[in-house]
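Give me the fold.
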Amino acid sequence: MVEAPHPKINQIPAILLTGFLGSGKTTLLRSLLSCEDAKDTAVIVNEFGEIGLDHHLLMGASETTFVLENGCVCCSVRDDLEAGLEELFWQRLRREIPWFARVVVETTGLADPCGVLQLVSGESLVGKRYDWVSVVTAVDGVCGRAALENHSESVAQALMADSLIVTKTDLADMDMIEALEARLQILNPGAEMYRSSKGEFGASLAALMKSTRSQKGRQDLFAQGQASNQAHSADVTACWLSFNAAQDKADFMAAISDLKDKLGGNFLRAKGLVEFIGGAGPSVVQYVAGGDVVIEDAEHLGIDAKPSGLVVIGSGTSDSEIHQIFTGAGLSPLLQSTPDHHHAHGGG
């Protein structure tokens, strides 16, 4: 293993945390931030849509949380990421925010880490401010094999990793976990491999701040990423649905069931804050392809926010089709427009 060099004067060590949709990045990050060696860590969260759920789940875990919304860090919010990192640096220097010793950037599930690191490395201002010591990739222990087979983003995330963390091992059988790890070992034999159950995996943040590849090795990956000109999976759509009133839970679940029937494995992810009729308050709704819908009390999770709606991510569909499925179930969500709901990009 080649450990990351000590940062230069005024450089801040940084980690890129990535992983495909629903792989458990936020749960993992919350667990990491609870470690003794992570108290002085700043976090940048890149969220799909206007829901803002992930950063609510991290509130209290870090004193310094910066949110990038409405896009993917390797695409539509690249400038925001660079500006956000610059602003964090200067706010830290001016003591306008709590002093932090390191930064973790959590990407969306569709981000290409190669493109992100190309942006924040090298001779750019941000590249000089931060020392990107490692890439940590969360891989879903239940759905990870399917993601690797069907989505180029998942493969890119695994290839770039210094550390691979197989999550949700409490939900997967041992044969499934071992088959996934064997696949990951072929893709990236140099990466450190960990297992995580409910976000806990027996390693500290410091253990993840070590690189398994040389600087030249990372530069070679950058060059490969530029040459391949890979795009996001075709026709991936992120649809934002806003609810102005409490919803009937049975009708809501019927809409989700209809989405599963019509899209099958192309129904990739759903998450948001929704209030149901008769409920005591807003609920966190989450779904990952191949799994079940999980509905939890928002207050119990420490989320103090008004319901703002649901983001649905799928391929081979459209905003209007998703909206029609919900209205057909007797619901009346507002379809929120967004400048970047079909995700694709070229090299870099």
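The longest helix spans residues 78-93.
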